[in-house]
Amino acid sequence: MERTLAIIKPDAVERGVTGKILAKIEGDGLKIVAIKMLHMSKGEAEGFYMVHAKRPFFESLTIYMSSLPVIVAVLEGEKAIKKWRDLMGATNPKDASAGTIRKEFAIDIERNSVHGSDSPESASYEIPYFFSNIEIFF
Ligand code: CMP
Q1: Is the CB of 109 under 6 A from ligand 1?
Q2: What is the pTM of this model?
Q3: What whole-number percentage of the chain has pLDDT above 70?
Q4: Which residue's CA is minimally distant from atom 12 of ligand 1?
Q5: Average pLDDT over residues 42-63
Q6: CB distance 85 to ligand 1 below 6 Å
Q7: Mutate to test the pocket of ligand 1, among 64, 109, 118, 125 (most ligand atoms within 8 A of CB)
Q8: How much is the pLDDT for 138?
Q9: Tell me, what's the pLDDT at 80?
Q10: CA distance 23 to 119
Q11: From edge to edge, which strands make up the β-sheet containing 70-77?
Q12: For ligand 1, what atom is nearest to the CA of residue 65?
């Protein structure tokens, strides 16, 4: 069993497609073991995306991610990290395959509707960034 962090980003929450995205997650056999809505400050978004601090899109990304509330969730399942990334689709919706969340909902490479941990190392930074142990259903 593996755990990964999922974020439903401001563009998707704002357009009211949270329920549709959560249904796809559960429909794919991933178990939601923690979930909440929160509005990150700019500094909190910077801390979350620290690994991208030197990238040219960092400033715009962290302004966007702190612009409106997001849904953060912990997903659990066998190979949950890959499973969730496959369901999300490519970072750029132009490259995303049919049937993926980004193909269906993303607006552009920044407003790409969802985030998922890209490795076990990322998941072990990202999950405790938002959730303490007592908030995760065992
Ligand atoms: P995410 O999977 O959350 O990881 C980093 C985010 O940066 C990415 O999704 C996009 O929202 C955003 N982003 C904006 N421009 C780029 C880019 N050129 N390459 C990768 N990510 C980008």
Answers
A1: yes
A2: 0.98
A3: 100
A4: 110
A5: 98
A6: no
A7: 109
A8: 81
A9: 98
A10: 23
A11: 31-38, 70-77, 2-8, 114-116
A12: 11
Tokens read off for 138: 């065992």
Q: What is Dmax (Cα atoms) for the chain? A: 39
3, 80 contact by CB (below 8 A): yes
Q: Taking a C-beta distance cutoff of 8 angstroms, is the pair 2, 116 a contact?
A: no
Return the bridge partners of 36, or none: 72
Instruction: Classify residue 22 as left (phi > 0), alpha (psi -120 to 50) or beta.
Output: alpha
For ligand 1, is residue 57 a contact (CB within 6 Å)? yes
CB 28 within 8 A of CB 130: no
Tell me what the pLDDT averaged over the chain comes to: 98
- Whether 91 lines ligand 1, by a CB cut-off of 6 Å, is yes
DSSP-based three-state secondary structure for 107:
coil
